[in-house]
Structure formats: C-alpha cells, structure tokens
Amino acid sequence: MRAPDSKEEFRRRLDAAAQDTEAELDRLFAPAPLPGERARPTRLLEAIRYAALGGGKRLRPFLVIESARLFGVTGASALRTACALEMIHCYSLVHDDLPAMDDDDLRRGRPTAHKAFDEATAILAGDGLLTFAFDVLCDPATHDDPAVRAALALALARASGLGGMVGGQALDIAAETADAPLSQSEILTLQAMKTGALIKFGVEAGAILGKAGDAQATALSRYGAALGAAFQIADDILDAEGDTQALGKRAGKDADRGKATLVSLLGMDAARVRRDGLVEEAIAALDATGFGCATSVLAEAARFVAARRN
Amino acid sequence: MRAPDSKEEFRRRLDAAAQDTEAELDRLFAPAPLPGERARPTRLLEAIRYAALGGGKRLRPFLVIESARLFGVTGASALRTACALEMIHCYSLVHDDLPAMDDDDLRRGRPTAHKAFDEATAILAGDGLLTFAFDVLCDPATHDDPAVRAALALALARASGLGGMVGGQALDIAAETADAPLSQSEILTLQAMKTGALIKFGVEAGAILGKAGDAQATALSRYGAALGAAFQIADDILDAEGDTQALGKRAGKDADRGKATLVSLLGMDAARVRRDGLVEEAIAALDATGFGCATSVLAEAARFVAARRN
After folding, report:
1. Closest C-alpha to B282, from B233, B241, B214
2. Is A106 strand, coil or helix?
3. Domain B6-307 in CATH: superfamily?
C-alpha cells in the first residue's frame, strides 16, 4: 500500500534529516574543546569539518531518525546517534580515498580530504571522526539510560569493525589482486560487510533507542539488510553506467579494476531484477513490524535507494 | 615510603599484566567471528594480530589493572579494559609509522605493519584495532553495569580523539613544518595530548571500574598526568641519547627533524631534573588517594618510567 503523497513526504523527511544532521555535526565539531579535551587543533578540526560537513544525501542519518521515530523517539537521542553513524561513514570515505587505498581525487564533487589537506592530516581526520562517533554515543547527552548508550556503541563498533565495514574494505582490496574472481556468495558477503552493515545499523539503532521487542527488532534488521544489499547493487549499476559529474566521484572504477560485482557477474538486467526484488523484500519486512502506514517513509526510502541517480 | 621489595613486586606485576594482556588479546583476536560479525578476513586479522601481539612492555594495561586492583576490581573487567586501551595504543603506532606520517620501518625490533603487510592493510588494521577497543569496552562481558561500560568508552574516546591523542599527533606533525619552534607551553600541551592522555586514562579507568569517589579519582588523575609527562620526557631523553638496537625503533629521530622537545629546549640536565620532579609529583598524588602502601607498585611504576632504557 502506497499513499499518494508518500514520495513527497519521504523527500521532505530526507531533506529535514540532512539539514538537522548538518547543523548538529557543525555544533559537535565546534572549535571549543569538550571537558577532558585539551584543545582541538585547528588544521585537524578543519579537515574533520571538511570531511563531515556539506555533503552527501545523509541517508544513514535519515534511517536512524525515521526508525527511531517509529518508537516515538525524536530529538537529541535520535539526532546524535544519526551523527555518530554519519561520522563512521565519513571517516571510511576519507580513508578509502587515500593513495594506498582507492587513490581517489574526487568525492562529492570536491577534492578528497588528502588532496584538500595532506595525507597525514587525512589519516588523522579519519581517526578523529571514527573515535568521536563513540564519544557521541557514550555521552549522557545522547540518552539518559546508560544501557542504551552502551548498546548503541557496541552495535556500531561491531557493524563498522573487522567483522563489518573495515573487514569488507579488506576483502575488497584482497579481491583486486586475487587470482580468481569472487564467487557470488563471496561478493554478497563482501558487500554485506562493506556497505550493508552500516546501513543495517541505521535501523537497528532506531530499535535500540526505542527499546524494541525481538519481533520488531528482527523485522527492522531484515529491512536494513535488504536495503543495504539493494543500495550496493544500485551503486554498482551506477558505477557501470553512470557519469562522473552526476556521481560527484569517478565512475567506471569497478570495470577499470576488474572488480567483481553482481553487475559483472550476472549482467545489468539480472542485477536490476535482483535490486528490485530486494526493495520488495525490504518493504515486506516493514509490514512485519506492525507499525502499519507509519513505515511508508522507510518503504519510500527503499524505492529511492534503487532508483537514485547519484 | 618505599618497601624494600617493592621494585621486585613491581616487576612481577608488570610481567603478569603483560602475560595476561597477551593471552587476552590473543583470545579477542581469534579467527571465529563474534555475534553480529559476518567474518574476520584472514589477512586483516593477521595484520591486527601482528600489530597487537608479542610486543611492548604493556605499561598501559598494567596501569589499568593495578589502579583497578586498588578498588578490589580484578579479573575480566580490569583485563578487558586493559586490552581496549592497549588496542588504541597499538593502532596509534601502526598509523604513526605509515609513510605519510613518521615513515618508520622498525617497531619493537620488527618491521612496521605496513612493511610486514602493505599500506592499505596497515591503515585498515589500525582502523579495526581502534574500533574494536570500543567493542570490548561496551560488551557486557567487561562489566555488569552499563553505566561503567559507557563511562569507560566515553573517557577512552575523549582521551584518544581529536582533543587527545589524535590531536596531539596532528600538533606534532604541524610542528615539523612550523616557521617557529614550539614554546615550552606548546610542547607541554602537545605531549599531554599525544602521550599523556592515554597513560592518564589507564589510571582513570581503574577509578571508573572501582566507582571511586571524587577525591580518589582526582588524586589518581593527578598521578596519571604526572606519570605521562615523566614518560614523555624520558622518551625524549632516550631518543636523544639512546641507540636504535636497545629501543627497538629508530633513535635520534627528534634531532633529525629539528623537533622541539623539552630536551632540545631546556637541555639534557634540566630535562632530567624535570623528569625526576614529575616522578615525585606522581608519588605524592598517590599518597593523597588514602590507599597507603597498596599504591607502592604504582609508585614503583613512576620510578621505572623515568629510569627505563627502552
């Protein structure tokens, strides 16, 4: 069931989440040190702000904010959690763009952090963003209940660490120099770790903030997993057919590197079918939450992820 | 007051902390994924183990374990917290050794991580270690009380982030290309952030685990701050006069880079006087904890830090 105005409402909420996230990140990365901090070095802070502010669709913050809203959780708890997740996402882009990694010059239509600053500053800015995500989650300002704060931080660490995003990056690098191309199941594991884990955390964070029961938490996780997989296939399709200007980053990278994706493995048409099937799976999982039409904005997000042009 | 056998007891406890830390890190970085982890990629895990295992005096874990012991906290809570701190320390060495940073080939008498593996793997291993430190602290296995877990993670994030260790690294890099040498107060701030913050966290973690009152927590923080400052001066003295073989890392780096330290600013003799004064300050702070002779091992640690040869 799709309300006629749900696409418009989704756009409105996505824009609102992006604006709120931008404002909160700006505040969190103000020059004044927090208690326990000696100083915030100027150039490092500039690089962190460069990497975190002024860019991106803020899809991950949106997922936190909208999944928390299902449980009636709004305000600072949801927004600060959203910012912590975005910090992890932004740090991963900074490190991924480094010369020793993907060696990219362009990100969100601007020079990458190591181009705008220097490599050492980019490495440290990434480390600082990563560390600060856990500062934000564990600060009492995020939630009164320390059990919620610790659970959020644990879930984010597990999604983004060696068994999650960082591990996925490592598998991605290994695949470029491997003798044999990855199998479909290896590609799915790599993508679930590299991209999927953080997207899934976005909605799991809402469940943690809302102290969801098992059934609702499981349904949201299933939504998040399907959404993350659809997102990655859409990304691979865009890379294969997209143009650099629309993407704001270099297109055609996967083919240049002989990188195995579902597009290279299954072909473009089958990849589109798979992507659309995952969108339907994500929407079906939302139905199982029992929240009814309150999930229509998240359903629209799944359609958006598949149809986006950048 | 110094018990005749306190030096021997310190050595025994330092060795025990090192052995326990090694065994626990080995267990934490086992191949089997934890719940919520998809997989632990082999080469990444090898690099993490290479960076974290088999090296160092484990002074920081010792500080956690011994400060927690003052409050009667022993076992998994202290040891896992000790391991989390050591993960942050080890990740900082891996990233600091990178070509774009200090560009070092030798660490603890072995090739640095990016030499033993490759740059991309070293960057990701550092990111994985950093992230896993927060996983460990926020896991219920570390403490039953989520308020303790969240407080530990918040304090570690603040000590190691942009207003702590990472910020200190950034100031250190900036100093190498600055027009004017750093002032004494700038050097002290840099060192308090780069080295001091993590050492200070070691004993603050004991206070958090022990749910210390304000007076004891403050006294332990003062001990940790003085210890950290003494440690850094001793490090600068060793770099100026030490030999590469004994250090297990390249000596004479500071002079090569014209880096301002208290040795270059005040001269060797005055630096030694300052170092010894800080040791006395650290020991005086321990007296203020009211724990009596239970702190003699921590007092011995302060003497050790000043007198060490590597």
Report:
1. B233
2. strand
3. Farnesyl Diphosphate Synthase (1.10.600.10)
- Read off the pLDDT of residues B189-243 as tens digits, 9 standing for 90 and up: 999 999 999 999 999 999 999 999 999 999 999 999 999 999 999 999 988 887 6
pTM of the model: 0.95
What gap in Å lies between CA B6 and CA B265, rounded to an integer?
34
- Residue B179: what pLDDT? 83
Chain B residues inside the 8 Å CB shell of A193: 38-39
Q: What pLDDT, on a 0 to 100 scale, did the predictor assign at position A3?
A: 59
ipTM at complex level: 0.95
Strands A110-111 and B106-107: unpaired
Domain parsing of chain A, residue ranges: 6-307
Contacts of A38 in chain B (CB under 8 A): 163-164, 167, 189, 192-193, 197
Q: Which residue has the higher pLDDT, B221 or A251?
A: B221
Give the mutation candidate from B85, B88, B134, B201 for the A interface (greatest A CB count, under 10 A). B134
Among all residues of chain B, which has the CA nearest to that of A196? Answer: B38
Query: CB count, 10 Å around CB of B250?
Result: 16
Torsion of CA B264, B281, B192, B77, to 10 degrees: 140
Give ∠ CA A169-B61-B36 in degrees, rounded to 5: 35
Would you call B64 helix, strand, or coil by DSSP? helix
**Which of A80, A138, A182, A218 best probes binding to B when mutated, by most B CB atoms within 10 angstroms?**
A138
Scored b (16 or more CB within 10 A) or e, B38-60 reads bbbbebbbbbbbbbbeebbbbbb
How many CB pairs below 8 A link A and B? 205
A166's tokens? 């960082």
Predicted local confidence at residue A177, as pLDDT: 82
A123's tokens:
């490495």
Residue ranges, chain B, pLDDT below 50: none
Give residue A256's Cα distance to chain centre: 25
User: At residue A160, does pLDDT exceed 70?
Assistant: yes
